Amino acid sequence: MLSETVDGTRLAYEDYGQGEPILFLASWVLHSDMWEYQLPFFVEHGYRCVALDRRGHGRSDRAPPATTWTPWRTTWPR
After folding, report:
1. Residue 56 and residue 63: Cα distance in Å, rounded?
2. Sheet containing 47-52, strands listed edge to edge, beginning at the edge strand earlier in sequence
3. Which residues contact 57 (CB under 8 A, 6 or more apart)?
4. How far is CA 64 from its chain centroid?
5. Would you place residue 65 in the very low, low, confident or very high pLDDT band (cuts 50, 70, 90)?
6. From CA 62, how far away is CA 38, in angstroms rounded?
7. Which residues are CB-neighbours of 42 under 8 A, at least 6 positions away?
8. Burial of 52 (0-12, 13-18, 19+ CB in 10 A)
9. Residue-wise over 33-44: b if at least 16 C-beta within 10 A, else e?
10. Which of 38, 53, 58, 71 has its Cβ near the most Cβ atoms within 10 Å?
11. How many whole angstroms separate alpha carbon 3 and alpha carbon 66?
């Protein structure tokens, strides 16, 4: 899935299951595919799992130039 931020950057995320949410966020240079073996376990145990691709990683857009990027204006996908 894709969600667009205020500045037009598209952030990719996967959303599975229902229940108490767990956010899966990969470290630098990795993306949400790294969680493919962990997600099914938590979904089967009643959790909602959201795996996010950070800006410039995986299926998310690259960040705009630093002169226009304002971290307090970004939005979280709903």
Report:
1. 6
2. 2-4, 10-16, 47-52, 20-25
3. 26, 29, 30, 31
4. 17
5. low
6. 26
7. 17, 22, 49
8. buried
9. eebeeebeebbe
10. 53
11. 21
72: left (phi over 0), alpha (psi -120 to 50) or beta: alpha
Question: Which backbone phi and psi does 39 adopt, to 5 degrees?
Answer: -55, -50
Q: How many whole angstroms from its chain centre is CA 56?
A: 11
Look at residue 75 and tell me whether its pLDDT is greater than 80: no
Q: Return d(Cα 1, Cα 23) in angstroms, integer.
A: 15
The identity of residue 12, as a single letter, is A
Taken in order 37, 40, 41, 47, the sign of the CA dihedral is: positive
Contact 11, 63 (CB under 8 A): no
